[in-house]
Design goal:
Blueprint: H1 3-9, H2 11-14, E1 20-24, E2 27-32, H3 38-47, E3 54-58, E4 60-61, H4 63-72, E5 74-83, H5 84-92, E6 96-103, H6 116-121, H7 127-148
Parallel strand pairs: 3-5, 4-5, 5-6
Antiparallel strand pairs: 1-2, 1-3
Helix pairs in contact: 3-4, 4-5, 4-7
């Protein structure tokens, strides 16, 4: 890891309330305190697909997050934790990835199974199909949460 990447990876330590940073040309253009894929979905809703190269710094990268990273125009990901299928997807899409720990899969928030977003895109290799699947899965999860409340 180069000095610049090392400095960037320290952003998560220096700002523990932040979960995600998005950089363009070395400048932070977006950050978030939300978990999961929401930060990148929020960025996409605000900015769309970038015509400039993005660097994503995120606490945990499952395959869903990597699909979104590719979809919005990322060229590099820096993360403490990435799943095996996320790293494989990143490699297939020529993303530069720096990580500390490789895990078999991302655990869901109730800690009793795989993250539903990662699970929904596990067998998908196409970025656009993956993006559409994530959108549908998020809608279904939101519907289920409303029914529970």
């Amino acid at each position: 890891m180069g000095i610049r990447s090392y400095h960037l990876s320290k952003l998560l330590e220096e700002q523990p309330n932040k979960t995600c940073f998005i950089l363009v040309e070395g400048e932070i253009v977006f950050d978030s305190e939300y978990h999961g894929v929401r930060p990148m979905m929020d960025y996409y809703k605000l900015s769309g697909k970038s015509d400039k190269e993005l660097i994503i710094i995120d606490r945990i990268m499952g395959k869903g997050a990597v699909v979104l990273a590719v979809h919005i125009g990322a060229v590099k990901i820096i993360t403490p934790i990435i799943s095996e299928i996320a790293l494989d997807f990143a490699d297939k899409h020529q993303l530069d990835v720096e990580y500390d720990k490789l895990v078999p899969y991302i655990i869901n928030r109730t800690r009793d199974g795989q993250c539903p977003i990662e699970k929904s895109v596990a067998e998908i290799d196409d970025v656009e199909e993956g993006f559409q699947t994530i959108v549908k899965t998020l809608k279904a999860l939101a519907e289920n949460n409303r029914r529970v409340e």
